[in-house]
Design brief:
single chain, six-stranded mixed sheet, 6 helices
Length: 163
């Protein structure tokens, strides 16, 4: 159906900005690659703009099963995983990724902000937790924590605006 075709078109999208100023590099000299697992197109767009400005390579999928399928074939440096998504949620996807032996750091992105919600994310195998809405500076700090590099050339304006 037409709706299925549109969904397939959105499911896996790679965004790369080859000439970003002073992108964050891993020790190998390669730009860090992030997988964003998020079903909301608005949130996808906002996070992709932030990550592109920071110089990261980004792939976007819109559900947990698509993340598993992608990570079966590709390696990334970090996964930003929404909790609530259609087809397969972030908790189940993370549990299945860990059962497959995938050790890539996974950071939960969720509107749930209670301590027990954070515990559920960690119990599923996620490494960290970022509650939505979050500030640009909070995202930058989380990426620095897990990727071990400080993004350079990042605009520090409007870092207090929420995503």
């Amino acid at each position: 159906s037409r709706a299925d075709q549109r969904s397939l078109g959105r499911r896996s999208r790679t965004m790369r900005k080859p000439n970003a100023e002073q992108p964050p590099f891993r020790e190998t000299g390669k730009r860090s690659h992030i997988l964003l697992v998020e079903d909301n197109p608005t949130t996808q767009g906002l996070i992709s703009i932030l990550l592109e400005q920071m110089g990261y390579d980004l792939t976007i999928v819109d559900n947990g099963q698509a993340a598993i399928d992608f990570l079966d074939k590709e390696v990334v440096d970090l996964v930003l995983m929404d909790w609530q998504m259609p087809r397969m949620d972030g908790l189940k996807a993370t549990s299945l990724l860990r059962a497959k032996g995938i050790e890539t750091p996974i950071v939960a992105l969720t509107a749930y902000a209670r301590a027990e919600d954070e515990e559920k994310c960690l119990a599923a195998g996620m490494n960290d937790y970022l509650s939505k809405p979050f500030r640009q500076s909070e995202l930058r700090d989380m990426l620095q924590k897990w990727l071990g590099c400080r993004p350079q050339g990042t605009s520090h304006r409007n870092e207090n605006s929420a995503v």
